[in-house]
Amino acid sequence: MILVVAEQKDGKLNRASWEAVAAAQQLASGSMPIKIAVVGQGVSAVATELAQAAVAEVLTVEHASLGVYTPDAFAQALQQVIAQVSPAYVLFPHTYQTRDYSPTLAARIDRALVTDVTAIRTGTGAPAFARPMFQGKLIADVVPQGPAPYLVTIQIGAYRADAAQKGAAPAPIAVAGVNVDESKIRQKPEAPFQEAKQAVDLSQAERIVSVGRGIKTQENIALAEQLAKAFGAELAASRPICDNGWLPMERQIGSSGQTVAPKLYVAVGISGAIQHLVGMKGSRTIVAINKDADAPIFEVADYGLQGDLFELAPAIIAELAKA
Ligand SMILES: Cc1cc2nc3c(=O)[nH]c(=O)nc-3n(C[C@H](O)[C@H](O)[C@H](O)COP(=O)(O)OP(=O)(O)OC[C@H]3O[C@@H](n4cnc5c(N)ncnc54)[C@H](O)[C@@H]3O)c2cc1C
Question: Which residue CA neighbors atom 48 of ligand 1 most closely?
Fold first, then answer.
């Protein structure tokens, strides 16, 4: 049995959960049942949404101490769920939250954890979990050792959310009862940083226009903003743009920034260094605008526009205004 731990915040499902469901369905190959657990408080609407998936069951894991996220409470609760359902694998989307608590959980139950998995190789023998190493220069195929369950986090964008198979009828929803010992919660969460700043979560964006050093000056960022607006997209950037302080760090895409998988990623004046590509190559459709025909970004692009961005971007904005 495979357990997928879906992620929600304030009753809103993180769509990377669907990507983890798609990964679980590939791992199961139709021969292992899948259950989805959703942890928090007031998660019934999210459970109903997840019950559309072709899975055996959705489990709600609710407790007053799980309403506000803490790694200790989540690890306590999930340890009990794992003991109740005895899965062979536990899959999580590789989010900031699971990055935080999954090592704690793995240590508590003394089981193997494979993080940031980009592909699952099934066939003869035990499944291997592919994960990038050394900033994406190598891919290691990891076969976890020791007793099950094996804990696996799935990189955002490695699987497509819309590839998750839906069931003919909604899956049953059941309650997984857990106790959380509040005296064992060592963290005292403060008000969420993201909400206070109203920061953007690019991993949830459906369209992204990303700008690189080809934009040349801080003043020209306005052109990228106009292009993003014309597409109805979020604005992101390569590292030099954020290092220069032309856009905030939270908008950086890549190995030291965010990993994203939008439906549309428009790379404007970005060369396509490996550290950038690892953050966006899972995007469904990639459009690259670059004056250099040999720029590596064209190797991952579905549509390449070779030319001067200062001519092409205004032309695209004008065309989109007509649409
Ligand atoms: C440990 C480490 C971590 C890193 N992490 C990240 C990361 O998270 N994210 C990231 O992005 N980078 C990261 N980098 C940096 C990365 O190696 C590259 O240096 C960076 O991605 C390059 O950014 P760029 O493509 O904007 O700039 P450049 O490589 O300078 O490319 C600019 C591109 O713009 C094109 N261009 C110029 N003028 C025009 C024009 N008028 N019209 C059209 N095209 C034009 C050029 O042909 C060129 O291809 C990291 C590096 C290291 C060592």
Answer: 271
